[in-house]
Design goal:
By secondary structure, the chain is an alpha/beta fold. Helices cover about 30% and strands about 25% of the residues. A six-stranded mixed sheet has the order 6-9-10-3-11-12, sandwiched between helices. Strands 18-21-22-15-23-24 form a six-stranded mixed sheet, sandwiched between helices. A hairpin with a 5-residue loop joins strand 4 and strand 5. The longest helix is centred in the middle third of the chain and has 16 residues. It is globular and about 75 Å long.
């Protein structure tokens, strides 16, 4: 059988950086091909070239095969050529218009059906229902605004939009981190949709940091490192350890969580805090302690740290950080109380995309670099260079745009922004979302060091392995309250998953203070 798409000798050079260097990849119909590598390995650049966003360097060759077996040349860097070749995309940012319905979002891709100069809503509604039903997403009203759908339903709409009218030429579906915003229970639903598409002969290019997903869904895998092609192999020929070794270039030593002693001082204290999906939470965290927060979407997990850090208003209760009561909805007061926090949405609430690495690092507090109302740029550069070296941020320099960095390196810059404030209370929401396995371990080590130096750390995460790795105590939220608590040897992924899904709290911790 002929391949579906073949690219050879693909390179892409940006000023001062080689993003891809002589990369080749072949995709076959009816197979899922995973593309993996650390942040900055070149995955995103390859996808953007396929989509027509970036122009490749000269010297490559690319072809695709029509259904009748004829080979056609493919011009990379052209959105029109990608469309003609049957390449469709579901990006990590799904690109949906959330105020519009599923019917309207799907019609934006192929056009509305008209009759006598008016939109034929009956036909377009039936078309949307059929497109969603074909990939297993037929359990919601296609007329309701997309913004009201669950994360998995939104993913379904994006898949249906990409694959509608697939008979008319869609042959390759590129999925870029498709499970980044999906709770664990909905990942299988996506996999079922992928299997349906494969059965039609569609090829899948699957980009993910989650290696368990690669082994669960992929037939073949291509590994990139620092812009170079390291290997392309059948997934069946690899195990986790070997795949990680190929990705990072060496065997990763297993690191366990820090065993730093917990002190007596309470540095983070929540008393009767309510707001969002959280209802009357009491929680004390001591110096040197790392407390993990688990819970399914809607449990309150997603709102606990925004409430504690003043990002959303509290309805009741009191937050005390380092002995200072911080007013509700006042993130500036949280920072002033020798605290720092990291938001779950790096792109929207973390980095300022119009600023440089240097400016993103220091914008939290410029006091130490000002004199007579002017910024001492030399001093600022020296400090930022120190943080770049300390956190091993991969960047062409301190004054390049933050958008030139990979996601993992942007996350390190956000850590630098917080840690330079010398906080003794550190609150982190999804600290490694969208981060590769190598960068994740580096960030975990940063958190370990903060706790070892006496900071109290609160970590909310949907990654149960991350909570096991980091936490000395894990609280599980259900229906807005602390429904269970795990310590010591009881902190396992299995116990966390089980506690999250129980229908009733095993122990009601919502009416008293938690202590180590």
């Amino acid at each position: 059988m002929h391949p579906l798409l073949r690219i050879e000798h693909l390179s892409k050079t940006f000023p001062g950086q080689v993003a891809l260097d002589d990369v080749s990849i072949t995709l076959e119909p009816g197979r899922t091909h995973a593309l993996v590598g650390q942040n900055g390995s070149g995955k995103s650049t390859l996808i953007k070239i396929l989509a027509g966003y970036h122009q490749p360097d000269e010297g490559y060759t690319a072809s695709y095969w029509r259904a009748d077996g004829t080979e056609q040349p493919l011009v990379l860097g052209s959105a029109a050529d990608a469309e003609a070749a049957g390449i469709r995309f579901v990006h990590q940012d799904l690109g949906l218009v959330e105020m519009l319905s599923s019917v309207e979002n799907l019609a934006l891709g192929v056009g509305f059906t008209t009759k006598a100069g008016r939109i034929n809503w009956k036909v377009d509604t039936a078309r949307a229902r059929q497109a969603l039903s074909e990939i297993g997403f037929d359990d919601f009203d296609v007329k309701m605004p997309v913004g009201l759908l669950t994360a998995s339903q939104k993913t379904g709409v994006a898949l249906a939009r990409a694959m509608q009218n697939w008979e008319n030429g869609a042959t390759l579906l590129v999925l870029d981190e498709p499970t980044a915003s999906l709770p664990g229970a909905d990942v299988q639903r996506l996999f079922d949709a992928i299997h349906r598409l494969k059965a039609r002969g569609v090829a899948i290019l699957y980009v993910s940091h989650h290696l368990d997903e690669v082994f669960a869904i992929a037939d073949d895998v291509t590994i990139l490192r620092d812009g170079h092609l390291i290997a392309t192999q059948p997934v069946a020929d690899l195990d986790h350890s070997r795949l990680i070794e190929l990705m990072i270039g060496h065997t990763m030593q297993k690191v366990v969580a820090s065993s730093a002693r917990t002190g007596d001082r309470v540095l983070i204290s929540l008393a009767g805090v309510s707001g969002g999906n959280v209802a009357n939470i009491d929680l004390d965290i001591h110096e040197g302690e790392v407390v993990g927060v688990a819970g399914i979407n809607g449990s309150g997990r997603e709102h606990l740290i925004p409430l504690a850090t003043g990002q959303i208003p509290t309805a009741t209760g009191e937050v005390t950080l380092n002995g200072v009561i911080t007013p509700p909805y006042s993130p500036g007061k949280v920072l002033a109380a020798k605290s720092a926090f990291l938001s779950a949405d790096r792109a929207v609430q973390g980095v300022v995309q119009t600023l440089t690495v240097l400016e993103n690092t220091t914008l939290g507090n410029l006091t130490k670099h000002t004199k007579f109302g002017r910024i001492l740029k030399k001093n600022e550069r020296v400090e930022v260079k120190t943080w770049i070296e300390r956190l091993r941020v991969r960047t062409a320099g301190a004054e390049v745009p933050i958008t030139t960095l990979s996601g993992g390196n942007q996350q390190k810059v956000l850590f630098a922004r917080g840690l330079r404030l010398e906080p003794t209370a550190l609150m982190l929401d999804e600290p490694t979302r969208g981060i590769d396995v190598g960068a994740k371990e580096e960030i975990h080590s940063i958190i370990d060091n903060a706790a070892a130096n006496g900071a109290a750390v609160l970590v909310a995460s949907t990654d149960t392995d991350e909570l096991v790795r980091l936490s000395s105590r894990v609280i599980i939220l259900r229906n807005g309250v602390i429904a269970a608590e795990l310590t010591g040897a009881d902190i396992t992924s299995e116990n966390i998953e089980h506690a999250q899904l129980q229908s009733k709290p095993a122990t009601d911790h919502s009416s008293h203070k938690e202590s180590a």
